[in-house]
Structures are given as structure tokens and as C-alpha cells.
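Weekly puzzle thread! Below is a chain. First person to post its structure in C-alpha cell form gets bragging rights.
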Amino acid sequence: MKPSTLALAAAAACTTCACTTGAHAQTTCAELDLVPDGIISIADFAQGVNPCIAGGGADCDFDGNGDSNGADLAFFLANFNGCRSASLSAPTAFGLPVADPMNRLLAADISDSADIDAGYREFEVRFRLPGPDAELISVTGASLGCGAPPCFTDPGNALSTVLSAAQIAAFGATGDSYITIGDRSGEPSPAAVFGFIESAPFAAGQSFEAGPLGWFLSPIDAIGFPGSPGLGSADGNTDNTVTLIGVAQTAPTLSGTIAVAYTHGAQLFISAGDISTTAEPCPADVNGDGDLTPADFNAWVLAFNSQAPACDQNGDGLCTPADFNAWILNFNAGC
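Winning reply:
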């Protein structure tokens, strides 16, 4: 795929943690007891991490780099549930964060004909985990914008969750932009993610800044459990990809930087990268990985079977066998 359609560039350096590639010294659950009261509980988050990290306190500078930020918050979140049922002297399940130099971000164009007719394209920014047992803990920082606002459309959804078409219409809007951890569309009442950001980040159509602490699942009890939407194997996370942001993009191009914390094995990683999207359709790239390969045919078959928007390859608003021939033409034409 040509760079003007989807450009991804690895960040030159980790900006949210002390960048190391080796293992850190063992940490214990006692470090999470920020109240302190001798136990690990939600009070350590509410009374400790929240004001401590937001205020730059030294007690929550877990990695000792002189700055309390999203990487420190990710360390707390990754180990919170394990330490709640352990003694303070027990080792934490995950060590202090280390940098992952790989850019694991990708953007998928999920627009349908109704979106295009309304004057925007829908993109999902996703993060590809290294395996089904890896878990996305938090977005530790993010910015996304364009050269000449408005950049995106949004009904001002204060909860930042995925809205249904009926809900979007009730707001008098044409599209929705949101932040998330994983595919929440299948949940009857998806909980809003928690973040140190404004309540309706996309509402003004200007550039979106999540700040140095980003967002994570709410309630935090879901992190580290089999049902976590951040797991590579969770429902809706195809090919171990976890959705982070959905944008109804009105600008020709969006660009930004996103840093993500995830666990794999017994280690906590921070991966930071740059991403840009251009509202130039490439319908044959059905799996949204930025390349045209035979895997896109399998993705199209799945889209056809589920009647997903990506099935519509000829732009007639329908998902029919004719779209198979259209996909072949689109694939051969390239992007």
C-alpha cells in the first residue's frame, strides 16, 4: 500500500518510560500500597495512584526515572488484581516496563457507503499484540489531529463509548468518534474507559490530546482476567488486534502519536509509534494491516459471512456475491 494511504513510522525512542531492553530488578506488591494501610485495595488507586500520578508524586514513580507518568500507571494497573490477593512481600506478576521498539499500530478503514455519503470516512486505530495471551493494559499517551480543523465529527458523547446508529442519530450527528480498549460493540452497556482527558475529546473537531496518562479499562477489576477486552484472544480482537480509537474523519489526513502498555509473559512493555491516515479508500485491504495479501481474501470471506461493511467492495451499499468480483478488481488495482 502506498504511503499516502496509510503511513506508519516507528517512534525513535520510548517517551513514556525509562528505556531499557533487559529485565528489571524484582518488584513487590508493597510498592502498590500507596495509602498505606497494609493491603492492596481500590483505595490505593482512588487515593494513591490517581492524585499521585496526576500530580507527579515521587511515591508512584515506580520505574525511578524521575517522572510519574503513564508507564507508572500501567505498572500499577497490570499488577493490581494479582497483588490484591497476595501478601505485600509477594513479587509482582509483571516487572517494571521496558521498551518495545516495534511499532504495532495500524489503521483500518471501516467506512461504508453511508459514511462516505455523509462526507467522512471511519477509521479504527488498532494495536497488534504479539499473541493471544498478551493483554493491552492502557494507552499511556496519545495525540491525533489534522492540519486544518475540523478533523472529525462527533455527537459529543461524554462517555466516549461506541454508539449505535440510532444513538448517533438521536444526537443529531452523522458519525461518532470514540476511545476504547478492545471491541466493545457486542456489550449491551459497555462501560466507559477511564482516562485523564476531557469528557468529550472529539466533540469540537479539533486535535485530540490524551496527555501523558491516557486511558484504560473501567472498572480496573477487569484488567488481568480472562474476560478482559484487552486480551489478544478477546471477542472481536481479530488477529490479536485491539481497537484503541475510532474516528469519523472529515479531514483529508489525520496524524499523531500513540503509546501503549501491554503485558506478555511476565513482562510489561511500552510501545510508542506514529500513525497517519488518509481518507483515500483501499477497499481490498479488508484486514486493515496496510498491505494487500491473500490474507485479505480470507478477511473478505469473513466480512461476507457476517455482512460487515468491508464486504461491500463495489460501493452499492449491499453485501452480495458481486462484491467478490469487485474485491478481485480492487486487489489487482492495488492501493
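Puzzle host: Confirmed. Bonus trivia for everyone else. The first helix runs from residue 42 to 54.
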